[in-house]
Amino acid sequence: MSAARSCRPPRALTGLFVWHLRNTGARQIPCRFVHFYHVASNRLITFQYFNFLKRMYVTQCNKDLSQRAKPKSDSIVSPFHELQQLDQEKKVVHKISSVSPIHQSWSEMSSRNELREMKSAAETEDSVIPGGAESKEDRQWKEMKLQLDDLPGILARLSKIRLTALVVSTASAGFAMAPVPFELTCFMLASLGTGLASCAANSINQFFEVPFDSNMNRTKNRPLVRGQISPLLAVCFAASCGIPGIALLTLGVNPLTGALGAFNIFLYTCCYTPLKRMSIANTWVGAVVGAIPPVMGWTAATGSLDAGALLLGGILYSWQFPHFNALSWGLREDYSRGGYCMMSVTHPGLCRRVALRHCLALIGLSVVAPVLSITTWTFPVISLPINLYISYLGFRFYRDADRSSSRKLFFCSLWHLPMLLLVMFTCKKSVLEKEDKGKLHGRSNEMAVEIRLP
After folding, report:
1. Are 229 and 158 in contact, with CB atoms under 8 Å apart?
2. Residue 380: exposed, middle, or buried by beta-carbon count in 10 A (0-12, 13-18, 19+)?
3. Mean pLDDT over all residues of the chain?
4. Average pLDDT for residues 170-199, to the nearest whole number?
5. ∠ CA 210-216-220 to the nearest 5 degrees?
6. Which residues are CB-neighbours of 40 under 8 A, at least 6 positions away?
């Protein structure tokens, strides 16, 4: 017992040693932690480094632990669809394959299975390879060859034949409303020259807008976009229409009409076309372009620019705003995709307000016609219902601002203009009345001169 006690250290010494370790350890723990962090960072022993070593081990040593793609979860099917599938499964008749006899050897069975697999593989190859070859051929680039039978239709789409027909009809209305006797030869020359000028302007417009039309669903099938004709052929077609058209209007009709036709081509191709990607002012410039054809018809008949020509131009100018603004409202995605700056895209509120204003302006312009002695006073009365109807649709478009109201306004504008021009022609003042008034006015001036003479 005495020897065991002598080998144990005294309690005072053990307590002193523990107290020393506590004090020195508590003080040196932060320093040691900082030192260990510096050593680990210097030797690149970081968390990212351990992850890198782990990935290297998994990919090289133990490939079964590599990351695998998760299978796609089954789509949620409605109960109704599941019932349909069950019914279809009930209707399917499953064929029972014949059981091979027991006495056949294993080699014969394996050979027959191999023959069946070879036949099925040959059948699948025969059925799949031609389809794949055809799909690859369809996807490859092909040069489109121009055929003479397709050329008239392609040129008609290049010249926007429907728009050209509308331009010629408004020019004919201006010619018919002129207060002069009707001349068939002059009318035919004016209509032909105006149509050729319109074809030239539309062709040049499509030539400039090929990269932008390719981004729009409405214009991506145009001939130049699809490559059905070359740009050189389009320019040659525009020149072959524009030069004879302007020459026909200048020499066959009168120089004023030819100058208006040349100015309209310049305004449409050099002002309106680039402005479509720069400012919303393109709509007002385009309205001026559409207002010039009836003025050309008036000047072709009279040879002068009168108040009646300006009135017809004003009616066409105001009509185009509800017509085009309603059309562009449904094509906002296309116009924004093509990079065109339209009111319906950048200023939707202004687009609706302008359409409503010009719908109401048509009522005022109809009242001005009898004041200028172009029509009788029955014209504003008869045209009031159709003008009020398009104004009502313009108000609906302004209030609702949806596709339904814009479509109704657009389709109303398609029949409103020919109806208005037809009513205007039926209420036109006859040439004899104007001549009689002119004679009476001349006689009154002569009588006044004679009275003033001594």
Report:
1. yes
2. buried
3. 77
4. 94
5. 55
6. 46
| Helices first, then strands: H and E counts in the chain | 22, 0
Q: Per-residue confidence at 3, pLDDT binned at 50, 70, 90?
A: very low
pLDDT digits (tens, 9 = 90+) for 367-394: 999 999 899 999 999 999 999 999 999 9
Q: How many residues does the chain have?
A: 454
Token representation of residue 304: 């002068």
pLDDT at 436: 53
pLDDT in tens, 334-368: 888 888 889 999 999 999 999 999 999 999 999 99
Question: What is the four-CA torsion angle of 313, 314, 317, 319, rounded to 10 degrees?
Answer: -110
What tokens were used for 349? 């509120």
Four-point Cα dihedral 434, 435, 437, 441, nearest 10: 130
The DSSP code for 429 is P
Can you say how many angstroms the Cα of residue 300 is from the centroid of all Cα atoms in its chain? 37
Does the predicted TM-score (pTM) go above 0.85?
Answer: no
Give start and end residues of each alpha helix (H) in 73-160. Answer: 79-91, 106-139, 151-158
Q: φ and ψ at 14, to 5 degrees?
A: -65, -40
Angle (CA) 126 128 131, round 5°: 110
C-alpha–C-alpha distance, residues 271 and 205, integer Å: 11
How many angstroms separate the Cα of 35 from the Cα of each of 27, 28, 42, 212, 336? Answer: 14, 10, 11, 66, 63
- Cβ distance 342 to 328 under 8 Å? yes
Distance CA 210, CA 214 (A): 6
Distance (Å, rounded) from C-alpha 351 to C-alpha 337? 19
Q: Are 191 and 164 in contact (CB under 8 A)?
A: no
